[in-house]
Amino acid sequence: MACAAGAALTKDEGTPLLLVTLLVLIVRYALRWRQFRERPAPRNIAIAAICVLPVVIWHLTWSLSSIRPLMLNQHPLSLLPHLPSRAATIARFVAALIDRRNTYGWMALALPVSLLLLAFNRFRTGATIAVVFAVQALAYFTVYLFTPINLTEHLSESADRVILQLAPSVILLLAVSLAPNLRRSEDKGDTVNLTGTVRADRPAVARFD
Question: Which contacts qualify for 13-18: CB closer than 8 Å, 24 or more apart?
Fold first, then answer.
């Protein structure tokens, strides 16, 4: 949550990441309440509120000052005929970023490998992370498609930072897909979280679902 809030404060394109993270957390807690009548810990709610508050204050500040973000296109439908060519421009630009002197190459390789390994495991683990990454990437792609700014200039000025915001999800996906001991907890009484499931009869096992 803190990373998502930081991304939203770093650049406007980070706001979709924060919204997606909040949505995933809300859905997750709603499902756990429906299944187990388990309420979220007050500490987690407080942490989420503290992380989101600076972003809300920032957006209220520029909205009350009548500042209009440049990334918001006021006439998005006018770009519909140009979407295929704009999508091709984005793809060519991102592909050209891959170089032996940077880390974009390993990301381009790690992403399909991770998704393939998760698919072989029928997404028993890592499904939530994969969904968050897909929605985040789609949101960034949509922002570039409909940007009112010159597309090439917008990509040149922000693409590296957007990829940097996607990198943690790729690293986490790769770790989950490669970990051989990840599995679902079979006991309903276990305490399950991202740090692991503590059992008296076996070692702690992380769960990502």
Answer: 13/71, 13/139, 13/140, 13/143, 13/158, 13/161, 13/162, 13/165, 14/165, 15/55, 16/135, 16/136, 16/139, 16/140, 16/143, 17/136, 17/139, 17/165, 18/52, 18/55
Structural tokens at position 21: 């993270």
Flag whether pLDDT at 70 surpasses 70.
no
pLDDT of 15 reads: 78
Reduced to 3 states (helix: H, G, I; strand: E, B; else coil), residue 77 is helix
CB 95 within 8 A of CB 169: no
d(CA 209, CA 166): 19
Angle at 209 between CA 159 and CA 104, to 5 degrees: 25
